[in-house]
Amino acid sequence: MGNQRTDVEDLGEFGLIDFLTKNIEIQNAETILGVGDDAAVMDYYGKQTVASTDMLVEGVHFDLSYAPLKHLGYKAVIVNLSDIYAMNAEPQQILVSIAVSNRFSVEALHELYEGMYLACKLYNVDLVGGDTTSSNSGLVISVTVLGSVTPDKFIQRSTAKKGNLLCVSGDLGAAYIGLQLLEREKRIFLENPDVQPDLGKQTYPLERFLKPEARRDIVKFLAEHEITPTAMMDVSDGISSDVRHICDSSKLGCTIYEDRLPVDEQTKKMALDFNIGYTICALQGGEDYELLFTISQDDYDKITISEQISVIGHMTDADDGVQLITSSGEKHKLKRLGWDSFKQD
Amino acid sequence: MGNQRTDVEDLGEFGLIDFLTKNIEIQNAETILGVGDDAAVMDYYGKQTVASTDMLVEGVHFDLSYAPLKHLGYKAVIVNLSDIYAMNAEPQQILVSIAVSNRFSVEALHELYEGMYLACKLYNVDLVGGDTTSSNSGLVISVTVLGSVTPDKFIQRSTAKKGNLLCVSGDLGAAYIGLQLLEREKRIFLENPDVQPDLGKQTYPLERFLKPEARRDIVKFLAEHEITPTAMMDVSDGISSDVRHICDSSKLGCTIYEDRLPVDEQTKKMALDFNIGYTICALQGGEDYELLFTISQDDYDKITISEQISVIGHMTDADDGVQLITSSGEKHKLKRLGWDSFKQD
């Protein structure tokens, strides 16, 4: 769209909504009525509806000086889809509300929505509603996602059993390292705008932070191999914090083995550059959007078929808390140290 | 809770969520899983799900210098429920996300949620999920509501027919006058903090602005009397703007009669004090949260049973646009003049 700039004010709220939603193609037969009325209508005969919502706030969850708007839109959808997969459900519709100040042009918002629609397309999800309003300061994005699940097949956090194996998909800590890299280059740029950013060849951590994916493939693998996790959630705040939700609600503890934590080679190398232990990244770095789940020991053989799943520990008595067995065999109690938007850095 | 002040920071995000949701009582059998997991689970065998979302932004939709937090929470829920009733559906669950700066204490947020829970209780709705995050500036509230409707009984905006009668529930313009009153008293207070606010005895407009209700009773009346509106929506931006959605999507025009517009006596009196024509308030004042709908002429006798419903006009050809017949019999074409958060005052 070149350098054209249309002010949001010129379009008005309804013009903006029309502009942002005109290319929607409804993908699910269940979506009877989408954008353009007071509410969306969905048909769910014989299925259960699953709904979740996440809000992203400028200056808290993202920094527009290095997060391209299209990636931001993509990520805003993905983090919501991840919650639905974590229920063992299939996302089907999203509702998106945004508050924007007049420093955003219509073209900028178009970029944002292009990223959302791309995620919708790839994950077969319909954007069925939302709200668009002005803001006196930063950008706020609120996404609600609805999904469906075969009756009684949804998986909670509270149903892990003692002796269950603790598993995680993919790898951990890369998004945290990606963020460190972007923050470093931003500091350098602010000190000397003539220096070109050195993002290196280690693009994996950047991609993990800027454009994460949701683990639909893992939910599919589990179904195909008839593995029903006893508890499941997604990794958003770092597993040392997230696993505590499973422990607390299941009234259990757990033991995690440091040498079982899946960490990508690029992440390890860059963690070294930043002088951060990669185990810390894996345990405390948030925004991995992997699935963290528990399975019966009987399912161990089946789970090892997937190279995308690591068994990282097992569930213990509540009194044991969350323990880490280090590579050298030492035992540490882990404290709750995940990311919390209310804590000051 | 007296003057105790707990910083949000001290509780952390999960502590805050626990604190804010600990008193929830699930009301609907369909609500299988509520707050505390990645997503909420609902059961809708043989029903259709309806979902809607609205975002309220401090400084745009509300001013905390005169909107008590409890009322604000109540209103944030009501404006969403109103969207569901406007579909001829029954609201059942809400998801609430808030972004708050550290100038809000836990007690203040408790007040906000108390208002939300009160609305939930009165309208038989469950709060089933949400997100709570920090903000660098103002308060942002995003509510998503899910409801159910008997299959194919939902009512769209696009299905009005030429010759249909245009109806509205309750009365119009009071919320706008309530806002003018609050703005006037705020200006006086800022100029001279010693002057006590003079909110007078005309409490109805204030209540309409600060603590509106959603018209569940109208949906019930229509069902009981077997009146199926041909199109329906709620009045949020002012009927001169809102009716255009019915006209545009139904490819029709409409004629509205000034002397049929329902305006409360207190509203008329105060409009006079403010030197604003009350017809302007009724047409352009937003936030009434009444239902605006069209019915077949055959239903005229049945609709007159309700004193809460006024027939204000009828649907015409698209070429006629939105016309007002004044009390003196003159004909005016109405321009789109409703409230738009992107327009500067």
Please describe the structure with a list of short key phrases separated by commas or semicolons.
four-stranded mixed beta sheet; 24% strand; seven-stranded mixed beta sheet; 2 domains; homodimer; 33% helix; alpha+beta; Phosphoribosyl-aminoimidazole Synthetase, Chain A, domain 2; 345 residues; 60s Ribosomal Protein L30, Chain: A; 13 strands
What does this structure look like?
The structure is a homodimer of 345-residue chains. Chain A is of the alpha+beta class and 345 residues long. Chain A folds into two domains: 142 residues, PurM-like, N-terminal domain (60s Ribosomal Protein L30, Chain: A); 169 residues, Phosphoribosyl-aminoimidazole Synthetase, Chain A, domain 2. Helices cover 33% and strands 24% of the residues of chain A. Chain A is built from ten helices and 13 strands. In chain A, strands 8-10-7-11-9-12-13 form a seven-stranded mixed β-sheet, with helices on both faces. A four-stranded mixed β-sheet of chain A has the order 3-6-4-5. Chain A has a two-stranded antiparallel ribbon with strand order 1-2. In chain A, strand 12 and strand 13 form a beta hairpin. In chain A, helix 1 runs parallel beside helix 3, helix 2 packs parallel to helix 3 and helix 4 packs across helix 5. Chain A is globular. The mean pLDDT of chain A is 87. At the A-B interface, helix 1, strand 2, strand 3, strand 4 and strand 5 of A face helix 1, strand 2, strand 3, strand 4 and strand 5 of B. Strand 2 of chain A pairs antiparallel with strand 3 of chain B, so a sheet runs across the interface.
